[in-house]
Amino acid sequence: MTYFEELKKKAQEITKPTNQVLAVSGSPRKGGNSDVIMKQILLGLESENIASESTNLGSIDFSGCIGCEKCRKDKICTMLQDGMSVLYPSIMDSRGLVLVSPVHNYNVTSWMKAFIDRLYCFYEFDNNTRPRNWSSNLANQNRKVVIAAICEQDNIEDLGFAIEAMQRPMEALGFEIVGTLPVFNSFEKGAVKKQKEIMDKAFELGVLMGQQLK
Does residue 18 lie in a domain region? Predict the structure, then answer.
């Protein structure tokens, strides 16, 4: 059995998520403001004794969904064998998810968009209807998500669609939104650390998610 076949088997054997959290940063800048916010949320989770793991998508070699529809049969993406394949078992096994992205051109980064698109494999479609009715294999499992977006400017208009671009797909997949965190005035690496209110809010969101996962 190849490495990717083992990953597929591991993912397909997961039938019920555990009370752990997967945190995902969509920033190409390691250790930047997105990673700072992500780690602060995880500190809140840690205070509630919730296990977590994190990843920076900029360090993973993976591609966006190509719409091949092979996942309709396999229930997981098997056409593309890459860094995202490694994440699928953690996604399925974690009842909590944290998504953090800087704002690029009024939206999430291309890395975060590709990550979200690769969750398409969790949808089920009824091919007897047009447009097709659909459901999510991740729904009805009490899954939770915290969402944060970071931008350089100082007003909500410049945040663009970033939070909505993460929130709406997660809701469609069956996640309950624990909270969203818009962050402004943060461009230089680590600048968000100077915003005590934001850092406190990130920690509080982690605490809140931890309490809801218990």
Answer: no
